[in-house]
């Protein structure tokens, strides 16, 4: 299995698991944007919390 088919399989699994396969492209973009913003905010908050917890070692 090549890299391209592996990425297609991952994308297919993501769309089927989250139900995105039945949405229009603009709806997929909105959903993926919300997911990305949530992920980035969680990452930012975690980084800030860990840096304060460890006294700025990171």
Automatic annotation (TrEMBL):
It comes from the Eukaryota. GO terms for cellular component: endoplasmic reticulum membrane. It comes from Podila minutissima. Keywords: Endoplasmic reticulum, Membrane, Transmembrane, Transmembrane helix. The chain crosses the membrane at residues 29-50. It is found in: Endoplasmic reticulum membrane. It is a multi-pass membrane protein. Pfam families: SPT_ssu-like (PF11779). This is Serine palmitoyltransferase small subunit A. The keyword Thylakoid does not apply.
